[in-house]
């Protein structure tokens, strides 16, 4: 890796983000403190006024792209950025707190750290539970109501957000990543198209001996759902969870995981979740899966 020209390369992927992107960009200067930084925004084919908003500004480089997925857009943004010590991954519907990035960078510079996640709040100021446990057979159903870690991927306990500690992964709305380690891992896996890419990245970093660290000393707000969720994106999310599990555990265990996933989505559909019926149909009929995933050639998605 060549000598960094800036401390932080902020990278953002937009898709129909006109309502939020200006607020995101406006928050960056105060968040950076005395650090040097750049901003690259890759637009994945927005059909609203996102491009007009971006091109009216002088504080970012805009890269127009067809929509070949979030991970591909993020990797493209990194390629268009100057050399930097760290990559700041941002969702367009996030807002950074003043001084948050130097705080995250201080944590990232500790030996063995690859990813740093800040404390995130919702638009109403309440805690956003962004920390996650790794995928296991027991957690396939997302049974958060039990409160038991063995069944729950999402960490709900507020006390877990009060102290700095290592986590398996965190939601990717705001993450600071070591540039050299991002490159060593080959960036984000573009085969996921949308969802699971940040899970995969942190787990691969852990496989390589590098940690993801949460720090409550840095803060940000995330509106969430900035691009909305449809039956198609819900299907992508569920299919990618199965693909991730298969890639990490093998076909036999993943076959059981797949069956439990189908049962879970049927249960959700019966409870009134309207996006789950299309997902069930896509799970059991590969030809009905979103073509963008490239997962339509076998019952157990690869």
Automatic annotation (TrEMBL):
Record flagged with keyword Transferase: yes
Coiled coil: none
Protein keywords: Transferase
Listed Pfam families: Glycos_transf_2 (PF00535)
Gene Ontology MF: a single term: transferase activity
InterPro entries: Glyco_trans_2-like, Nucleotide-diphossugar_trans
Residue ranges annotated for the Glycosyltransferase 2-like domain, each copy included: 11-129
Name the UniProt record assigns to this protein: Glycosyltransferase, GT2 family
Organism: Microbacterium pygmaeum
